[in-house]
Amino acid sequence: MIGRLNHIAIAVPDLAAAAQQYRTILGAEVGAPQDEPDHGVTVVFIQLPNTKIELLYPLGDDSPIRGFLDKNPSGGIHHMCFEVDDILAARDRLLSEGARVLGSGDPKTGAHGKPVLFLHPKDFNGCLIELEEI
Length: 134
Ligand SMILES: CC[C@H](C(=O)O)C(=O)SCCNC(=O)CCNC(=O)[C@H](O)C(C)(C)COP(=O)(O)OP(=O)(O)OC[C@H]1O[C@@H](n2cnc3c(N)ncnc32)[C@H](O)[C@@H]1OP(=O)(O)O
Ligand SMILES: [Co+2]
Hints:
GO terms for molecular function: methylmalonyl-CoA epimerase activity. It contains 3 helices and 9 strands, in the order βαββββαβαβββ.
């Protein structure tokens, strides 16, 4: 069911500083900040040869990553995103296996304009998993 690793997301306390670090010290190809109000974050994507890094910064008062940054003030790996062919079939299979799908359970449109869902970290060894339909 899960396919390629689409991105690894890192929540950061300073988005501009983190982007600059990846651009200069790590010599990576760094995109421009993208506000995603529907998700409560501003994101910066870093293109790598085999996947992407998604830098995350809270946007708005009820950002879902605010709590994470309060607990991890220096930042940290926030989630992994796997690609799936059919996100509704994936969701239904996960629910039938007892996994929790976060939010309403219906996919939202993610940063790439594709449907995404999130699975509770407590159900997957402490890792927050995002699924993105390709
Ligand atoms: C533009 C879209 C973009 C894209 O790629 O397309 C995105 O990726 S948007 C990314 C931001 N959106 C989300 O993360 C949505 C899903 N996340 C959530 O709904 C929340 O973050 C949630 C429910 C996972 C955690 O919320 P919160 O921290 O406020 O809740 P709790 O404090 O009750 O946490 C419960 C429990 O989970 C642990 N936790 C929280 N976040 C993570 C994490 N990222 N990885 C692993 N574990 C996490 C937290 O420490 C609590 O554990 P406990 O042992 O009970 O303390
Ligand atoms: Co993501």
